[in-house]
Amino acid sequence: PEGVAVIEGVMTGLWLPVLAKTRDGRFETVSGIIQGPERAGDVKRYDLVLDRTRGALRFRVLDPQGSLFPSGERLHAEIVNQNGAQQRSWMIPVDELGRVTVPIPLDWVGDGQVEIRLARFDIAQTRLVRGPAEGVVVDLDDLVLQAARPLVSGRVADREGRPVAGLSVLAWREPFGTGETHLRDRDRDSPFATRKTTTDAQGRFQLEAPPFDGDWHLDVRQSGGIGLVRVDFEAGTTGLPVTWEGR
User: Fold this and answer.
1) Collapsed DSSP state (helix, strand, coil) of residue 3
2) Is this structure's pTM higher than 0.90?
3) Where is 48: in which H helix or E strand?
4) In the sheet where 168-172 sits, what is the strand order?
5) Which of 13, 45, 54, 55 could pair covalently with 145 via S-S, beta carbons 3.0-4.6 A apart?
6) DSSP type of residue 98
7) Which domains, and CATH codes, for the chain?
């Protein structure tokens, strides 16, 4: 019925309360269903409470007349964490079903509420259009959750191309601006946790990617050193950019 948007695709056992913030400042908390204003031209803001979950929100977006935005049109999406200290923004295309998918940074887990803002980008006037007059209506469609972090796999070989077994392979993030590696941090859900595995007899390895928001590093090590090693990433295992620093 009009005025109700149903959340679908939530994984079994996940606790994910959602707060819908209405234009007059009230909050309505519903499990699975958000109730709020649906009048054309309203720009609705949803505060998403994350309980150590990761993924993205997918919305249907309508113009002020209540029509779906055309496929391929790009909207400006901005998310701000609870205290306003961090924000991210993207130009996100509308898919063939009139939806946009807004990612939630993995290292924002535990930050509490996240405010999501959408706006049209007027290329002719190079300005952002906000507000009910020319804004967009956000119709919360479903929730896309990442069940597990991406796996990174590859093969380690020496200069002659022979596989090297028994190497330690570590994946880690460098905290922005610190130059530190936090290799001692073993907390699985920490943004700076280190993933570690060992190459098998064929020189292959597979490990979970670190919580990702920016570049991360992959190190291949062995006590005493073996000289230069090469990592061949297997196609299709990850779409994340990798900063390779051989050691």
Assistant:
1) coil
2) no
3) strand 45-49
4) 195-198, 168-172, 216-221, 242-244
5) 55
6) S
7) 4-145 (2.60.120), 151-244 (2.60.40)
